[in-house]
Amino acid sequence: GWLGVSAYGEDVSFFGLFRLPALIAKDEGLSDQIFAVHLACGILIMLAVVAHVVAAFVHNVRDDGVMERMLPGA
Q1: Other CB atoms within 10 Å distance of the CB of residue 68
Q2: CB-based contacts of 68: which residues, under 8 Å, 6+ apart?
Q3: What contacts 1, CB < 8 A, 6 or more positions away?
Q4: What pLDDT is stored for residue 5 in this prediction?
């Protein structure tokens, strides 16, 4: 995010407390590429979280002992 906004040429504010310095010179084309990678990584992380939740649910329904082994004290 910080790198993409820096490449876009905008200031980065840290929750309104202070401004972060630009990491690279303005280059809107590069900014678009950085944000495309940023979006793809975010989608992959969300898919991984959903897959883990679904897998945990499936193991719980199957009652195959996986959930018990994951919990503390098992």
Answers
A1: 12
A2: 74
A3: 38
A4: 93
Paired tokens of 24? 């690279």
Residue 25: phi and psi, rounded to 5, are -70, 160
**DSSP class of 13:** E
The domain locations on the chain are 2-70
DSSP secondary structure, 49-70, as one string: HHHHHHHHHHHHHHT-SHHHHH
pLDDT in tens, 2-40: 899 999 998 888 899 999 999 999 999 999 999 999 999
Burial 24-57 (b: 16+ CB within 10 A, else e): eeeeeebbeebbeeeeeeeeeeeeeeeeeeeeee
